[in-house]
Amino acid sequence: FPSHDMGFRVDTARHVDDLFFKNWSPLIQEQAREAGIKGFTIFGEVWEQSPTDLMRYVRVNKLQTALDFPFQRVAVEYASASSDASTLKNLFEYDDYYTDTESSAQNLVTFLGNHDMGRIGAFISPISVGPDDLKKDQLAHAILLSLRGVPSVYYGDEFGLTGGEDKEARQDLFPTKVSKWQTQHRIGSDPIGTASSFDIKNPLMDTIKSLNELRVKTPALTRGAQRTFFAKDGVLAIGRYDLETNSRY
To answer: Mean pLDDT in runs of 10 for the chain (249 residues)?
Structure first.
């Protein structure tokens, strides 16, 4: 994915006829090649919480890849301390279900929250900020940016926004006159008031930036194989493997 220039996010792909993508995707890819776009990517929004349900859209319906809703649920539960490490271990044991000659779990688009369900900040800190909420948010992004899949960071998470479902998670980052958004609590910084998000500093910005830099300079984190070594209670130990250099991280 790092070499991809552009692509499509297909909204509500779950509700499209089963035969649609088998016919549509090759035509779109052909148009992309004719336009000189290499590696055109198509990923669908398929709101399925079970890997066995999600994999059908990739392997059977031939959608190139999809948003990994099962990952979102399990990663947020673990980072917010509402479940233990075994839930992530169990999730990754289903990764082979996505594997065929054209697909794998490595291509799934992983995320922590979105405009429909709400932000990672809302799951961690729905009412007010607790003493460990910043660390939980940082842990969630560490999971997102170091484990298998293609990570997608939702805008505003770097500023600690905590918007909930639907319109509550669609704030802009410029000065606002909406009093509810002016006073809404943020993880890692104070409520925004009448200021712009771009004028404040939040530790989550540095967390996401440093994790992204680590991912870019460590190919094993983008394309490497993954193995779970230990997962019990709150402790999760996972190895990533660069198969070209035979290095483990």
So the answer is: 69 92 92 89 94 94 94 96 94 95 92 96 93 97 97 96 93 93 96 95 97 95 94 95 92
Q: Torsion-angle region of residue 141: left (phi > 0), alpha (psi -120 to 50) or beta?
A: alpha
pLDDT at residue 101, rounded to an integer = 87
- Find, among 139, 143, 140, 158, the residue nearest to 208 by Cα: 158
Burial of 75 (0-12, 13-18, 19+ CB in 10 A): buried
User: What does the alpha-carbon distance between residue 133 and residue 43 come to, in Å, rounded to a whole number?
Assistant: 31
Alpha-carbon distance of 108 to 66, in angstroms, equals: 6
User: Catalytic residue positions?
Assistant: 11, 45
The three-state (H, E, C) secondary structure of the chain, written as one string = CCCCCCEEEECCHHHCCCCHHHHHHHHHHHHHHHCCCCCCEEEECCCCCCHHHHHHHHHCCCCCEEECHHHHHHHHHHHCCCCCCHHHHHHHCCHHHHCCCCCCHHHCEECCCECCCECHHHHHCCCCCCCCHHHHHHHHHHHHHHCCCEECCCCCHHHCCCCCCHHHHCCCCCCCCCHHHHHCCCCCCCCCCCCCHHHCCCHHHHHHHHHHHHHHHCCHHHHCEEEEEEEECCEEEEEEEECCCCEEC
Sign of the Cα pseudo-torsion (91, 10, 141, 74, in order): negative
Other Cβ atoms closer than 10 A to 225: 13
The arrangement of strands across the sheet holding 247-248 comes to 225-232, 235-242, 247-248
